[in-house]
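Section 5.1 Outputs to date
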Amino acid sequence: MCCSKGEFVLTSTEMPEQLVQLFTAHDPLSKHFRSCVRTYNNTFAFTSIGIYNYDKSLCRRNQGIYTFRVQGQIYHFINDLLPDGCPPRNLQLYFYDTDHALSSRLESTDRLDKDVVQVLMEVMCANPYAQFFKTLGDVEQAGEFSIVLNGNPCLDQHVYNRPATSQVAAVWVEDGYEGAPSNRNIRVYAHSGRSQNIHYYYGCYDPLQYPLLFPRGEVGWHEGIARCPSGVLHPGSTPTNSLSINTTLFGSGESLIAREELLLNTGQKRHSISCREYYAYKLQLRRADKALILHSGRLFQQYIVDIYIKIETQRLDYYRSKQRDYRGETYQGLVDSVSTGIQTTSDVGRRVILPGSFIGGPRDMRGRYMDAMALVQNYGKPDLFITITCNPSWPEIKNRLKFADEAQNRPDLVARVFRARLEDFKKDIISKSLFGKVVAYTYVIEFQKRGLPHAHFLVILSRECKITTSARCDQLITAELPDPITDPGLYLLVKKHMLHGPCGTINPQCPCMVVARGSGSPTCRNKFPRNYSAVTEFHENCFPAYRRRESGITVIVRKHSLDNRWVVPYNAQLLRKYDCHINVEVCASVKSVKYIYKYVYKGHDRISMSLSETREDEVIDEISDFQKARWVSAPEAAWRIFSFPISEMRPAVLSLQVHLENSQYLTFYGNQRITLIRL
């Protein structure tokens, strides 16, 4: 995840002292800067940012948890050199003298502080892009001219990534410059009347949009960054002499196949660093962190979402360019095509746009759902439904916050710690058999609207460990407040993590309150408060009615007194150890399985799941539909950049095609001769 055992080492540039002060100090000016850091960055950015949709309620929050969460694509645009009747913005501000630029920036919004703007203008004096645009004030204005931005400044990022002014751009004067700009460069005109898109594969993509993170114009990822030459095995690695694989160690058929392909292709390594590898390296925790990108607060949230969407866009562009050449049809359909005189496949089948190999796509999520149902067919219904949610106050997170960091602004740290806790949690459930012997399980990672990750587990126990009696259920699961005198520690944990609401008539504005069909008054969608119950009762089509006795024990939450009716079911041992919200439920019947699995595998968005239900003869752009439908928050972006799994299943399920005779599904190239297709 870091340097691939030394295959690549990238340099890092130290942030200017003025910016270090603003990002890390606790004086009023620095605190103001951090609260408005995205506004300051946009004011000094050379490009403008366009977002398909974003969660305004979370991105503009001054109190509570701030989360940068977007839907759809993120675009970077560069404007004309000269303003066309509008106030100057972005790169246009760099043509003016200091006083004019200062007043123009302060007039753009009332959120900026004059002293902070002056400090940032001083910092940007050393930026090669700012220096270049400043020199354009001396260019003779007669005639039309444009500039050419170097998309990928030729730098060896293993040793140096700060470009000089001459490396980032050049002036293009018609009839006065020999040679044409490369297709990989960006040509900006004085007056064109339109903005240009800065593509993700440009090395200048990052420094043009994030000057406060890359004040020296440090180049970002671009194609062709070479790995370190290596002709020997790295320490700790061993040669592979056998293709023998223990299939029980893999959580999915895809991971098993990927491992087989890796062993078969041993020695065939990529020569360049991928986009994901590059940014995973940049986001590592290091003792001597000179760049301070991880400590840039709310701007880091925006940046990490931006670079993940860049990584995802690169992958989707690959599928768009390659999959257009592939078609699919049944064997009998091809035979019928030959009989009607069709010789090539260009007019046969339908386009396969977004395949199941794209993790998180609608086909992938539907396949995971079908795999989960295969476990049910073989092992029976799941016995437990467990949800564990990240706690941003875990000591592993709080103890590693430096300077003025807040947990909400360190999605990289949140993702790492939750991943480590999740692995420990799996050991308790699976290896240590906390609830009994586990014969099969599956889990999926999801991210709350405010960004925190949580995992949904479905656990199938062995026959002798099934939860079939009230006594057995009460032994493992509790839905009551503990005695604050005999067990004050557990009492505080339940108060902190396992109480719902309050909602209902106490708080009708609670987010869980919805208006049901045929009812004019809102009710809690989670059916709280629950009824008192002296014993646990199992029901046919839902979760059990857990024991909730009238013990007289209460707790004060938001000035309201709550009792056992408001407790979310939990396991005391897990709650003590993990100090977070862990909801443990018994699955009462097979009829609830389908609902649970559909809930678990609903994917990025319900819109994505609906894509798999379209007619087979209908041609749609699945890639665009997927990009428009999914939401991405900063913790999810970090999770995906680090390549942590979004789901796991044991034992693994390998799907095989079941078909009638001559109805097997075939894939083929768009212009391939039908008679040459391997049937």
